[in-house]
Each structure stands twice: as structure tokens, then as C-alpha cells.
Design goal:
Oligomer: heterodimer
Distance between the termini of chain B: 50 Å
Strand content of chain A: 5-15%
Structural class of chain A: alpha+beta
Order of helices and strands of chain B: EHEEEEEHEEEEEHEEEEEHEEE
Radius of gyration of chain B: 19 Å
Helix content of chain B: 10-25%
Helix content of chain A: 55-70%
Number of helices of chain B: 4
Strand content of chain B: over 45%
Structural class of chain B: mainly beta
Shape of chain B: elongated
Order of helices and strands of chain A: HE
Number of strands of chain A: 1
Shape of chain A: elongated
Radius of gyration of chain A: 7 Å
Amino acid sequence: TSTQARMQDFFKAI
Amino acid sequence: MLEARLEQAAVLKKVVDAIKDLVQDCNFDCNDSGIQLQAMDNSHVALVAMHLKTDAFSPYRCDRNIALGINLASLQKVLRAAQNDDLLTLKAEDAPDVLNLVFESAENDRIAEYDIKLMDIDQEHLGIPDTEYAATVTMPSSEFQRICRDLNALSESVSIEAAKEGIKFSCQGDIGSGAVTLRQNNNVEKPDLSTIIELNEPVGLTFSLKYLVNFCKASSLSNTVKLSLSAEVPLLIEYKMESGYVRFYLAPKIGD
């Protein structure tokens, strides 16, 4: 969902 | 190897109680800064980050970085065998199959020893950006818990508005609506009862109460909770411990 996408955007994978 | 002793088993018991309904399996990363964990919930809209710093332990020894892959339900089962004021020692080898937990009663000579099987968890490490929030509100954790529980009886979501005068929690549901406002107040005699608002600009966001009620299980960790809000970024909810913290992040609901 777009909510999940926004979380992924905020927390960048290292 | 890892050897870390907590003066009070209650600290770890409370941490596990606070996060076990959000996350099932996660890595406890042990290194020279202490023990940390970071995990997203299954639906990927919430994140929990925990840090028990080395000062939380005495002694603390960790020669190299160790990831302890733990099923939290299993850990909770074992921790139930510990009294709150037992000394709790965590031990693990450098490439461990098990985590060893020793509970020592301060009052008598009882020593209990348990091993938990560890699991390989391939967990993504996420970077949590330093964020300048529009508003940061510190309030009693019991008050926050009460508000979330009360409003959850009416609605699935809550609107949180922070302004200079106070913080307002409001909801609308099928049976009606509700709102609770806490005015900014500085209680000099009992600082934990204060509501302190640091405001850069007023902000209003909507969140799922199901998650907030879940986060409130951490209330026993701290008398106060800090909410940090900014438009379009996840809400940060922090419970500070004496030597560490549990932080929850929650994505705001869209369309407001």
C-alpha cells in the first residue's frame, strides 16, 4: 500500500 | 562472547511485553554500544527500535558483534520464570545456537538457568533519519494510554493536533465522537505529570488507534512518553528508560 511505501521511503534500507 | 547482567530482570520482561505483539521474531544485535533491536511489524506500517545501553548492564562484555535471532513468545515464556528483582545474566558464544539466561534471586541462593534456541533471521537494517519535528509533546505515559484506550472504544483512528496551548486527541465513530485535550502544564512538584509542548509549527495528523493501543504496552517502562509529530512523516513515540529507550514509529493515515 502507499502507507507501506511511505514507511519504506522514510526508513532507508542500509 | 556476550555476557550481560541486568540488576533487575523486570527491565527485559517489560521490554519484551512492550513489543511482542508487534513483532514475532527479531534479532537482538549485541555490540559494544549495548543490545539493540529494530523491526517492522508484519504489515510494514510500524517500526520498533529498542536500545539497552551498556550502562544498563553490569558487567557488560561483548567481544564481537552478535545477532541473537529470537522468537519473542519463546523469550517471554522463559522470562516468566524470573522474578522482577532477580539478577538476570544473558550469555552467548560468538556464533551461538542458544542464548543462556541465568536468574539469580537476590534474597536467597536460588539460581535458575535456561537456554533458548536461536534462529537465523534475515532482517533488513533500516536507517532512521534524524528528523526535526514540528511538535514534540512530553506527557504522562498513563494518560496517553488512557486516552488511546478510551478513544479506541469509539473509533479505529485518532486525530492528534498539537498547538501551543495544548495537544488534542479526537475521534469520530459510529456511536458518536470524542475528544481529549491536554493543556500545556509544567508541574514543578511532580515533573512526570507535566505536559510539555515544544512547537515549531502546529501540526495535525491521523493514526490508527489499534497500533497506538499496542504501543502503550510499553507504559510500564517509563512514567512519561514523548510524541514527536511532523506532517507526512511517521509519528515517533518514545519511552525512555534509565539506560536506553523503546521507540515506536507509525505511519500517519492518508487523506487528512
